């Protein structure tokens, strides 16, 4: 993990950057265009969006404006809950592809495990994968029991599981399960929506390395082999978040951060959501 281009190899052989930009709650239009362009200019290669974020068009515009060769980029989007099911997921994919202005998507995810629907949706993703419209397929917000259930019928194993993950919710059991199954874990909300930035223990560790708390958390992700996609709309923060390749947390500091776990979420529980 030397720089922003450093990648892990998913179980199907596709390389995916460890670090990327998330654009949840970033307004479509100028805000998302400038945010993505700033990231690409800073050397980011991975951009994570979703149909429900309603900013795929802006992400596509930024990609076009930035002029980075398409094959150097890794673009993720997700099928929303109301579009789950076989035919509707295929249609949702085509809509996302059109909005992004791309010929293919690098990673397509099921956004939430909608009961009674996610297996059918997974079949649609397998079809898109076989048709080479996507380079990799995966899930988001799946607990171990959702994955167990999906794997009973899946022809193709998910390559990625993107979940809420940060020092207050370190997901150690889920991470262990995914590792055994060769499913790569990716963290959304890695900074717990900013809640962790004032944490005293993390501040102390940050001072020791002359880094920010955010940088320490994001470095902790990487050293735990967790892909991470912090969100920001400020160029200086986008650059700062990525400045984590010039130091390494010592084992005792990794242990201290691991010890902050409270199994506490800042987002909805995948076993109890109503959207």
Task: Describe what this molecule looks like in 3D.
It holds the Pfam family Aldo_ket_red. Keywords: NADP, Oxidoreductase. It is a single chain. This protein has 275 residues and is of the alpha/beta class. The chain has one domain (7-258): Alpha-Beta Barrel (TIM Barrel), CATH 3.20.20.100. Helices cover 39% and strands 16% of the residues. The protein has ten helices and ten strands. It has helices at 30-41, 56-66, 86-100, 118-130, 144-153, 172-180, 200-209, 213-223, 235-241, 251-258; strands spanning 7-9, 15-17, 20-22, 46-48, 74-79, 105-110, 134-140, 160-164, 184-188, 227-228. The strands form two sheets. An eight-stranded parallel sheet has the order 3-4-5-6-7-8-9-10. A two-stranded antiparallel ribbon has the order 1-2. Helix 1 (30-41) packs across helix 2 (56-66), helix 3 packs across helix 4 and helix 7 crosses helix 8. The longest helix is centred in the middle third of the chain and has 15 residues, at 86-100. The termini are far apart. 46% of the residues are buried.
In brief, what are we looking at here?
The chain is an alpha/beta fold. It is built from 10 helices and 10 strands.
Number of beta-strand segments:
10
CATH topology, anyone?
TIM Barrel
Name of the CATH class:
Alpha Beta
What is the topology, as strand order, of the major beta sheet? 3-4-5-6-7-8-9-10
Architecture (CATH level 2) name:
Alpha-Beta Barrel
Cα end-to-end separation: 37 Å
The mean pLDDT is 98
| Fraction in helix | 25-40%
Largest sheet: 8 strands, parallel
| SSE series | EEEHEHEHEHEHEHEHHEHH
Decide which structural class fits the backbone.
alpha/beta
Spans where pLDDT lies below 50 across 5 or more residues? none
Number of helices: 10
CATH level 4 superfamily: NADP-dependent oxidoreductase domain
- Total separate domains: 1
Q: What is the percentage of strand-forming residues?
A: 15-25%
* Overall 3D form: globular
User: What's the alpha carbon Rg, rounded to whole Å?
Assistant: 18 Å
Binding site for substrate: 111
InterPro entries: AKR, AKR5G, Aldo/ket_reductase_CS, NAD(P)_OxRdtase_dom_sf, NADP_OxRdtase_dom
GO molecular function: oxidoreductase activity, acting on the CH-OH group of donors, NAD or NADP as acceptor
Active site: 53 (proton donor)
């Amino acid at each position: 993990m030397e720089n922003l281009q450093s990648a892990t190899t998913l179980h199907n052989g596709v390389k995916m950057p460890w670090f990327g930009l998330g654009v949840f709650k970033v307004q479509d239009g100028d805000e998302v265009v400038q945010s993505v362009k700033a990231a690409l200019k800073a050397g980011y290669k991975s951009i994570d969006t979703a149909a429900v974020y309603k900013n795929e068009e802006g992400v596509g515009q930024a990609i076009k404006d930035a002029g980075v060769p398409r094959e150097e980029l890794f673009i993720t989007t997700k099928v929303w809950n109301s579009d789950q099911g076989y035919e509707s997921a295929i249609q949702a994919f085509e809509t996302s592809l059109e909005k992004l202005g791309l010929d293919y998507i690098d990673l397509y995810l099921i956004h939430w495990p909608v009961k009674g629907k996610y297996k059918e949706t997974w079949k649609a993703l397998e079809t898109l994968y076989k048709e080479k419209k996507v380079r990799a397929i995966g899930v988001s917000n799946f607990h171990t029991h959702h994955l167990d259930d999906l794997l009973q019928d899946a022809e193709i194993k998910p390559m990625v599981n993107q979940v809420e993950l940060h020092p207050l919710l370190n997901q150690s059991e889920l991470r262990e399960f995914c590792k055994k199954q060769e499913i790569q874990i990716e963290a959304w909300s890695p900074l717990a929506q900013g809640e962790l930035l004032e944490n005293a223990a993390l501040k102390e560790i940050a001072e020791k390395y002359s880094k920010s708390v955010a940088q320490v958390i994001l470095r902790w992700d990487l050293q735990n082999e967790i892909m991470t996609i912090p969100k920001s709309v400020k160029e200086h923060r986008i650059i700062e978040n990525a400045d984590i390749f010039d130091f390494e947390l010592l084992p005792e500091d990794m242990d201290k951060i691991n010890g902050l776990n409270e199994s506490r979420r800042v987002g909805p529980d995948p076993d109890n959501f109503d959207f």
